[in-house]
Amino acid sequence: MTTATGIWQPHDRSPAETREVRIVAGEAELTATAAAELAWTVTEDAEGVHEVRITPDRPAAVRVAWRVPCVAATAFWAPDGGEHRGLPPFWRKPRVAALEKNAPVGCLVGAGDVSLCTYAVGEVIRPVHIRTGVVEETGDFGFWAEHDAEPGTGLVLRLDLTGRPFARTLADVAEWWRGDVRERADVATTWRGPAGQVPEVARMPAYSTWYAMQQHVDAVSVERQAGPAAELGCEAIIVDDGWHSDDRGRGYGHVGEWEPSATSFPDISGHVAAVKQAGLAYLLWYALPFVGRHTALWDRVQPYSLAYKEHMNAVIVDPRYPYIRELLAGHLTRAVREWGMDGLKIDFIDQFAVEDPPEPGPEADCATVNEGVRRLLALLPTDCLVELRQPYVSPGLWPYATMIRASDCPLSPAHNRQRTVDLRLIAGPLAVHADMLMWHPEETPERVATQLVNVLFAVPQISVDLTTQTPEQLEVLRFWLGFVKEHAEVLQRGAFEPARPDLVYPQVTARSADTVITARYAPLPVAVPEAGTLWVANADDSADVLLQIGHSGTARARVQTCRGRTVNDLTLELSPGTHPITVPTGGLLRLDLGSEAVA
């Protein structure tokens, strides 16, 4: 590993007065620069894992840079990578991670799904500028991270060069962040539960109105879905856009006042009570940053705006002002305290990340938008469910949420799989939810099942009209939602092992001491443990599942269809090698091994 000197692009050059120091952290050689005198410490948290702290002698932007040989690299993982997992060029525009959007973490993945270099920055509130990519001049992979630093805290970098599985290194980053977040005195009182815990209902299947109803939502239609949703295994319902207005056009010109529509929800408290009586927790949607042009608030908020979004017909209000924070928090608190809501779906936090925001006026009490967002979220009720969404994935948001959902990808199982797996890798204590599942009324049971299997390691949200589903489609939902609930502990909190990020995770595994659950999205062999129970969920079109066996013994096999109907129940004699077994598309294999085989 070598330092990064001489490879940066013209717009990366620092002013002439910049000081530069060289830092050694194990095998890594780093360059730190700032327009200040720099001191540094290097701590080895574990073999091959170092924490580097670089402190200026006065407030200054501090940059740390390094590079690694780009040998046997297969993918670059970043939380904002979307569908792209290739190796970016180093000359690409730097990305920004801050409280409102993104997270300061990345991983260069090598053959065998090992981490060639995993890094994370300790700053999770203020903006962190990050550049990563292939350096064409040398064939190295270059990194730098930069943010404004104070003498008391500095820039803190975690660098993992252990060569361990990439998913393990990212899980360790989440643990590192969690310890830092919990130690912050300013957020300790708003932490929503013991470390690693959120309310169990946040980890159970939910029903969402968005794809099923769009903005055509009312109390009658919601209550019509509540009973069937609860019967199928859902434990929460999320009412999305449309509840606050009679307008049914796209856009946000009518948001901001957050009064229930008098025609669609004439008795919001009574309606909420009826849905909860059916057995569901109730969450209500809010587009937090917006005030629409067609509201009475429009003129009042103009002096407190960050930007006008013409295509949304709304203004983004500025949380640096106490007036705005109290206005927004008051609306959301009312839903919980007066209407009986169990939770809030908070949308569009990333819209607060406005480039070049205006200078704050005299009524503002904080200088940065991200600090304003943090203070706004700290005003929300702490005894309710809160759903956030990609791309606002910063660990700085953990104290204010219970779950985080994949960004919108309707009818795109592969995207839903990738986004939920990406979230699982760095979500820390939060429950990870899939984007809502929808399908055409004529969709086959097998394809409904494959959508559910594609998000098996997250919480599914269902968004179709349950009263019009065929008996076969309902059987699929009942079977797979039941499986998700029964095995939630392993699926959501077991050791998590996604494979091949460069191929959009064609196989994913979760395991506990005696249970292994593998989802198969491509015709790859499935490793069989020596003991315990193996479950294989097949979302691939091929029904010929190859079992990779490394031992001899006996196993009991049961194969079920996508509807949960048993089609094969037999005893297998195992021997080392690869052996096929037929598992229908959308179906499930249970393999009991060792002593379990004769139980």
Taking all residues together, what is the mean pLDDT?
93
By DSSP (H or I, 4+ residues per run), the number of helices equals 11
How many strands, what sense, and barrel or not for the largest sheet? 8 strands, parallel
Q: Hey, roughly how much beta strand do the residues contain?
A: 25-35%
- Class computed from helices, strands and strand pairing: alpha/beta
Termini gap: 54 Å
Q: pLDDT below 50 for ≥5 consecutive residues: which ranges? A: 1-7, 185-191
Helical content (DSSP H or I, runs of 4+): 10-25%
Protein name: Glycoside hydrolase family 36 protein
Enzyme class: hydrolase
EC number: 3.2.1.-
Keywords: Glycosidase, Hydrolase
Spell out the key features of this protein.
599 residues; alpha/beta; eight-stranded parallel β-sheet; seven-stranded mixed β-sheet; 33 strands; disordered N terminus; hydrolase; hydrolase activity, acting on glycosyl bonds; Glyco_hydro_36; Alpha-glycosidase_related
What would you note in describing this structure?
The protein is α/β, with parallel strands linked by helices. Helices cover 20% and strands 32% of the residues. It contains 11 helices and 33 strands. The strands form 6 sheets. Strands 22-21-20-19-15-14-13-23 form an 8-stranded parallel β-sheet. Helix 3 (219-232) runs parallel beside helix 4 (268-277), helix 6 runs parallel beside helix 7 (369-378) and helix 9 (445-454) runs parallel beside helix 10. It is flat. The relative contact order is 0.09. Residues 1-7 and 185-191 have low confidence and may be disordered.
